[in-house]
Amino acid sequence: MNELSRRKFLSRLTVGLTAAISAIVGLPIVGYLVAPLFSAPPDDLVPVGAITDFPLGETKLVSIRDPSPLAWAGQTADTALWVRRREQSGPQMFQVFNINCTHLGCPVNWQAGAKLFLCPCHGGVYYSDGSVAGGPPPRRLFEREWQVSGDRLLVRQQPLPTVKQG
Amino acid sequence: MRLLRALAKLPRGVASWLGERFEFEDSVMAVLRHPVPRELERPVGWWYVLGSATLGIFVMQVVTGVGLAMTYVPAPNSAYDSLQFISHGATLGSVVRGMHYFGAGAMVILVLAHMTQVYLFGAFKFPREANWLTGSLLLLATLAMAFTGQLLRWDQDAFWSIVVAAEQAARAPVIGGWLASLVVAGANVGGATLTRFYATHVFLIPAAVFGLIGLHLYLVVKRGISEPPVPGIVVDRRTYRARYEAMLARGIPFWPDAAWRDAIVATAAVAVVFVLAAIFGAPELGKPPDPTNVLADPRPDWYFLGYFAVLALIPPATESIVIVGLPLFAFVFLFLVPLLWPDGERHWSRRPAAIAAVALPFIAYASLTVAGIESPWVPKLEGGTLPASVTQGLAEPERRGADLFVSKACFACHAIQSAGGRRGPDLTHVGSRLNRDQITARIATGGGGMPAFAGSLTPSELDDLTTFLLTRK
Known about the structure:
The complex is a heterodimer of chains A (166) and B (473). Chain A has one helix at residues 2-38; strands at 45-50, 59-65, 78-85, 94-98, 109-111, 116-118, 125-127, 132-134, 146-149, 152-156. Chain A is of the alpha+beta class and 166 residues long. A 4-stranded antiparallel sheet of chain A has the order 5-6-7-8, with no helix packed on it. In chain A, strands 1-10-9 form a 3-stranded antiparallel sheet, with no helix packed on it. A 3-stranded antiparallel sheet of chain A has the order 2-3-4, with no helix packed on it. Chain B is mainly α. Chain B folds into 2 domains: 26-288 and 297-374, Cytochrome Bc1 Complex, Chain C (Up-down Bundle); 388-470, Cytochrome c-like domain (Cytochrome Bc1 Complex, Chain D, domain 2, Orthogonal Bundle). Helix content of chain B is 63%, strand content 3%. In chain B, strands 1-3 form a two-stranded antiparallel sheet. In chain B, strands 2-4 form a two-stranded antiparallel sheet. A two-stranded antiparallel ribbon of chain B has the order 5-6. In chain B, strand 5 and strand 6 (419-420) form a beta hairpin. At the A-B interface, helix 1, strand 3 and strand 5 of A face helix 7, helix 8, helix 9 and helix 12 of B.
C-alpha cells in the first residue's frame, strides 16, 4: 500500500517536472512566435509624391516604402497604390486605392482606356471609383486615408487589407 | 594470396561484427523480417509498393532539400538571387533543384495513389484505423510542404500566393484576422514572412513528417500488412485478429520475399524524377517579387490549379463557406472514413459507393485543373491587336470602332476570330445575333458580369463601336 502510493507520488512528480520543462521551453518560444499578432500595425503618413504629379481625372500607380523596414526586406518593403485625382482640390480631391483585389488580394491593373481595374487571378473588375463592376469581389476596392500637406500627397500606411477588416 | 582471401572476407566480417555489437539481428532485421500474408507473393503484391515508393521519394526530398539549404538564402532581398545562382551558376544546381521540384510533384501523386489503393482495398478497416489516420496527417503534411515550398521560390507568383493564402485564412470565422497576420508574420508580406515559411518548410513540417512516418511504419509492422481483399470475406471485429494471425502463421517474411517489389518501384520512382530533372532541370523562376509590379499573373503549381479554378468559378456569395468549409469538410471526411466504416466488405467490387467516392473527386479535380490551366475567366491584360482579316478593308467609322474595341479593353474579355479574351461571349458573329439597340444598351449599361461602359465612352465612340460590331456577322 505504502509502496503503491510512493510510486504514484514519484510518477506524478516526474510527469509534473516534464510539464515544467515544456512550459519553461515553450512559453518564451510561443510568445516569440505569436508576437506579430499583437504588434501595432503601421500607422504613419507617408509621402507618395507632389500633387502636380497627379493630373486631374487620371489614375496613377505610385509606390511607397515602409518607413521602418527590416534591413533584409529588399523589395518587399515597397507597396504600390493606385491614386486617382478626382477634383482640383477639396475633400474629394483624391481617391487612394490599395492594389489588392478585395476577392483574394491579387494586384489589380488599371486599364486607362476602359477606365476599369482588372484583376489577373480570378477576373475581378472595378470601376474607376473602386466600385465592383464584375467578377467575384465581395466589396469595392479598399481605400486609404490621405492628406495634402503643402504640395505633397501623404498616404496612411496600413496592414494587408482583408475582407474582415473592411 | 592468403592475404587477399582474408581481405575478401573482411566486409562480411565487419558487417557481422557490427550487426552483432549493435544488436541489429533483434531490432532492424527482426522488424524487416516481419511476416506478411503469403498472397503478396502473387502479382497482387505489386499493389502494395506505393507506400515504399513514397518513402523513397521522401528520402530524396530530404537529401536534395538539405543540399539546396546549403546555398539558398532565406532573406527577401537575396532569396531570388540565390535561387538563380542555384539554377544557373552552381555545378549540378539545376539538377538538384529539379529533383526537389519534380520530387514534390511525385510526392503528391504517390501519396494520393497510395491512399487510393488503401481505400479501394479496404485496408483502412479494423484493426488498421490508426494507420489511415496517420496517413491522412501525412497527406496534409505533404500538401503543406508542397505549398510552402512554392513560396520559398520567392518570385512574383510566390509573393502573391502568400497574399492570397493570407486572404483565404482571413475568411475563417473568429480567428481569421489572427490567422492572416500569422501567415504573413506581421501586418504585410515583408522581411519577416520568408524566414518563417523557410523554418516551417525545413524544420517544423519535416519534424512532424518524421514522427508521423515513424508512427505509420510502427503501425504497419505492428498491425501487419492487410491481406488482399476477397469479395464476400468481410471484416468482423470479433474474429478478424484470430483469422489474420492464422494467415500469418503460414506467411512469408517481408524481407526479402516481398521487399524486392518495393525496392524496384521505389527505384523506378526516384529514377523517373532524376531523369526529369536531368532533362528539364529546375523550373524557371517567375519575375522578381516586386510588390509594386502590378503586371502579375500569379498561378500555383499544377496540383493546386484545380483549387485555384474553384476560387474563380464558385458563386461569390458561397465563397467564404467554400474557402473555409471545403478543405475542412474534405479532411474531416478523410479522418472519419475508418471510424465510420471499420468493418464489412473490403473488396472494391462490393463497395460501389467507395468507387464513386474515388472516381468523382478525381474527375471533378481533373476538369477543374483543365479549367485552371485555361483560366478563361482571366481578362487578357497584355493587350494585342485584332487579326488583319478583321481590320482589312474597314471604312470609317467601322475602323474607328475596331480601334476602340482594342483601346477600350473590350478585347481583354471578348474574342473576335479567336483573338482576344475569353471571359465574355465571343463576338465574331455578334452582328447576326443582336441589333444596334441591343448592342448599344449592353455596352452602355453592362450586365451579366459585364461592366457598364457609359462612363468611359463618348456617345460618338459608342456609336462607332456598335457600328463596327454590327459588321461582325
